[in-house]
Amino acid sequence: MKKIIKDTLILTVITVVAGLCLGYVYEITKDPIRISREKAKQNAYRTVFADAASFAEGEVSSVENATEMLKSLGLPAVRIDEAVEALDDGGNLLGYVMTVTDSEGYGGDITLAMGVRNDGTLNGIEFLELSETAGLGMKSDTPEFKGQFENKKVSQFSYTKTGAVNEYEIDALSGATITTRAVTDAVNGGLLYAQMMRGD
What is the mean pLDDT of each run of 10 residues along the chain (200 residues)? Predict the structure, then answer.
């Protein structure tokens, strides 16, 4: 009986000490992690809207309203996390930059930044969160795949396994259809939200 009590006390002390250590490590690392993520996001914004001088919240519509809209349009796994205005040196609106997540990637959430001009042209995409299969879904983070979305003025994209021939078509990644669909859906969700902000 004494041995059980002693072992229980030892395990309790170890658990408490481990919990305190984890809490301490979390407190030390949470600000650097937050700063690092914010820096990565700002770099992605500059990549997808290189000629913008600044990004501001401005008159952007509420992203909370977007989830229901996208669900009603057949994109239930897509959410708009953030949307900001891309402004030139004079504060004039060039377009919008959005952070969009699709929760149905093969490896979980796929989060990307995308820049859309006032005329509806998609500048391009940049990944912020991507945990797909190496050699398959991770190929979505290559210039060859991402380049298919650059400087395209389409209302929606679709993917094909037989070779893209139209402006709105994306070549699917071989062996990674789920990733291709999730990325395409995320981009389409962002395009729909941009259309809503422009009043199209």
Answer: 76 78 69 70 90 85 80 93 94 95 96 96 96 93 96 96 93 94 97 87
